[in-house]
C-alpha cells in the first residue's frame, strides 16, 4: 500500500489504469473502508448504513496531499496538480456534492500551500466555503474539518476557528475542528480555542480522535505510549462532559461546546455515554455528545452503542466513510492499514466474546432440553 501511494511511473503500479490491480483492491481494501468511487455507489452505501440504525454518515472526499517529515516531501493528487494550478482556485466540484449527503472535507493545491504557511486560503476558497456553510446550515448538515499532518495543521486550525466564529452560534456547532489526542500539544491548543470561544461567544465544535498520522508526522510530537494517548483522550472527553478542562469550569466559566467522539475504543465511548447519562439524571451540567467510528472498523463498538439507544434517540451514532476514485483513496487506505496492524488483538477480544456467547447458548439449549 505504501508503494502504491508514491508517484507512479508505470502502468503496472497505477491502480486507476491497471484493471487487475484495481479489481483486487476494490474487492478487498476499498469496499471494506470506502463508500464508493462515484455518487451512485456512495449514496447506496449511505442508505445501507442508515438502514442499520446509524443516525447519519460523515462523508469525506479522499483527494489529499500528504507531507512526509522524514523525506521532507509531499505526495498525493494535490502535488501532481501543483504545476498546472498556481492561481487561486475554487473548491473542488466533487466536494460540493457532499453537501447533499452528510458532510465534507478536502481542498486543492493552492489551499495546501496556504495551510503550509499557516495562512488562510485564497479569498476564492473562503467564498466557496461560505457558500458551503450556508447550504449546510439550511439543510442541518454539520461540517467536520479533518485533522491533517502537522505540516498543514496550523493553517487548517486558523481557518476552522474563523468559520466557527461566524457560524457556530446559539449553542449549535455547525463547524467542528478535529483534535488529535496523541499529540502532546493538544491540551494547550484546546485551551487556547476554549478561550477564543469564551471571548468571542461562539460554540466550539470539538471532534476528538486519537490520531492517524503516526507514519508521516514527527514522532517527537506524539505521546510516547499508547497508554498516554488513551489517558489524554479520556481526560479531554470526560473533562468536556463534566465541563471542567484546565481552568475552565473552575476559576473560569466553561464556554459553549458540542462534543463529537470519534474512536474505536469501546471503553472510551461507553465511559463517556454513561458519564453523560449520569450527569443528565443528576441534573448536572454537561455538553451534547455524538459518537462515530470509521466505516469498516469496530462495528462491534458501533452496534454496542446502537443497542443503548434510548427513547430520545441518544446516543447518536455515526459512521465515517470516504469516497473517491481508487487512486484518490490510496493514502486514506494506507492509514487504515496502519491502524489495523493492531487488529489481531481487537479481533482476539471479539473472538473470545463470541466464543463465550456460543458456549453459553449451547449450554442453555441443552439445559432446556433436559428440563423438557
Automatic annotation (TrEMBL):
Keywords, comma-separated and alphabetical: FAD, Flavoprotein, Oxidoreductase, Proline metabolism
SUPFAM superfamilies hit by this protein: FAD-linked oxidoreductase
Annotated Gene Ontology cellular component terms: mitochondrion
GO annotation, biological process: L-proline catabolic process to L-glutamate
EC numbers on record: 1.5.5.2
InterPro entries for the chain: FAD-linked_oxidoreductase-like (IPR029041), Proline_DH_dom (IPR002872), Proline_oxidase (IPR015659)
Needed co-factor(s): FAD
Catalytic function, reaction form: L-proline + a quinone = (S)-1-pyrroline-5-carboxylate + a quinol + H(+)
Ranges where the Proline dehydrogenase domain occurs: 44-347
GO molecular function (one): proline dehydrogenase activity
Pfam families: Pro_dh
Top-level EC class as recorded in UniProt: oxidoreductase
Sequence intervals crossing the membrane: none
PANTHER family for the chain: PROLINE DEHYDROGENASE 1, MITOCHONDRIAL, PROLINE OXIDASE
Function, in words: Converts proline to delta-1-pyrroline-5-carboxylate.
Family the entry assigns: Belongs to the proline oxidase family.
Record protein name field: Proline dehydrogenase
Source organism (scientific name): Penicillium alfredii
